[in-house]
Design brief:
Layout: H1 81-110, E1 112-117, E2 122-127, H2 130-157, H3 161-166, E3 168-172, H4 180-195, H5 200-203, H6 214-219, E4 221-225
Antiparallel strand pairs: 1-2, 3-4
């Protein structure tokens, strides 16, 4: 029997690490193609993220500062009834004492006495002075001027002398600013509402959450402690 025909495609492939067989055609031996070298691509660059400050942690044993207005409204702690009463008392004494002295002297000078004449059976008056009447009117005028001055101070700064002494002030509930002379005067007139129902409006700050009188509620004002 003869040899089987030569089949170059039927040759057994060399194992891993073995040399490939010689080229049966006598040509130069061609090395097998090598796979391309793998090159790792660099990771994509991301924009730097802004650093956020760490949240402040409360320290144990250290009292934390309360925000402004914590004990009351947005503009400070509401003034108590006692502070408001003391401020009103001081303002009343400043305005009332000088005026009261002048009015008292004037009233004494202008007073008259009623006398009875038993002979004629008629009554007559004696005494009285026009200067005393003028002095009385002067006393009331002084009190009125002092009151207007206090209302001007309250409208522009939020404080009268009495409120400065007790460290409180009147401000608008919406803006936190003084209400102006005009609104301060209207607020003074609105205190009539506080006196109508047995003066309960003046006592209402004892029960109200914002410590307001009826006049404060009508005028949208609050009385707070000064900083």
């Amino acid at each position: 029997m003869g040899n089987p025909p030569y089949d170059p495609y039927g040759q057994q492939q060399p194992g891993y690490g073995q040399q490939p067989p010689a080229n049966p055609y006598g040509g130069p031996q061609t090395p097998p193609p090598q796979p391309p070298a793998y090159q790792a691509s660099p990771p994509p660059a991301y924009p730097a993220q802004p650093a956020f400050p760490a949240a402040a942690q409360p320290q144990y044993g250290v009292p934390q500062q309360q925000p402004y207005g914590f004990a009351g409204g947005a503009y400070g702690a509401y003034a108590g009834w006692g502070s408001r009463f003391a401020a009103t008392l001081v303002d009343g004494l400043i305005a009332g004492v000088p005026a009261g002295i002048l009015a008292g002297i004037g009233a004494a000078m202008s007073s008259t006495s009623l006398e009875y004449d038993p002979v004629t059976g008629s009554y007559s008056t004696s005494g009285g002075s026009g200067a005393g009447i003028l002095l009385t009117l002067l006393g009331y005028a002084i009190a009125f001027v002092i009151m207007l001055f206090f209302l001007y101070q309250q409208g522009t700064t939020g404080q009268t002398p009495g409120k400065k002494l007790t460290n409180i002030r009147v401000i608008s509930e919406q803006t936190g600013q003084p209400i102006g002379f005009g609104m301060s005067f209207v607020r003074y007139l609105a205190h009539i509402l506080d006196g109508l129902p047995c003066y309960i409006g003046y006592l209402w700050p004892l029960f109200d959450a914002k410590k307001q009188t009826f006049a404060d509620k009508v005028m949208n004002t609050v009385v707070v402690r000064s900083v």
